[in-house]
Design goal:
This is Phosphatidylglycerophosphatase A. By secondary structure, the chain is mainly alpha-helical. Helix content is about 70%, strand content about 0%. It has one domain. It contains seven helices and no strands. The longest helix is centred in the middle third of the chain and has 26 residues.
Length: about 150
């Protein structure tokens, strides 16, 4: 019998249903997360850090449910893209010339999964779904801040 996911869990876990987009659901989820980031005031680090922390803590249980329902690291679960996107955008000016490179780098790190990100996918109990995107978000965060420091 398939694991039941209620409507609220589906809404949150699928990143406002972006996980059900037929193609490139990870990018679709990241774009929804970016749209939320663009809401005035959302860039406040306190707001972002609270939401990132909350979604990491609740996301593990949701990821596990989605894995039981859809299989390992399911495309339907895009809450991890929200977390990674927002980590990537932390503490940068809300200006397109900062946001766009951060978003592109984030997607590259998430898709290519350089070492040791790929290994993090293998962590069980729902954590692997989240940890690879958290790590890709931090890779982006550090690279973006280093680049902006030297080129600003």
């Amino acid at each position: 019998m398939a694991t039941k996911i209620n409507n609220l869990e589906k809404l949150i876990g699928s990143g406002i249903y972006s996980g059900y987009f037929p193609y490139f659901s990870g990018t679709a989820g990241s774009m929804v997360a970016l749209a939320i980031y663009l809401i005035p005031g959302f860039e406040n680090p306190v707001v972002m850090l609270l939401l990132i922390s909350f979604f990491i803590l609740t996301g593990q249980k949701l990821a596990l449910k989605f894995e039981k329902r859809y299989g390992i690291d399911p495309k339907e679960f895009t809450l991890d893209e929200f977390i990674g996107t927002w980590i990537s955008l932390l503490f940068i000016p809300k200006i397109i010339w900062y946001i766009l490179p951060a978003f592109i780098l984030w997607r590259l790190f998430d898709i290519l999964k350089p070492y040791p990100i790929k290994k993090l996918e293998k962590v069980g109990n729902g954590w692997g779904v989240l940890l690879d995107d958290i790590a890709a978000g931090f890779y982006t965060f550090f690279l973006v801040h280093i680049l902006f420091y030297f080129f600003n």
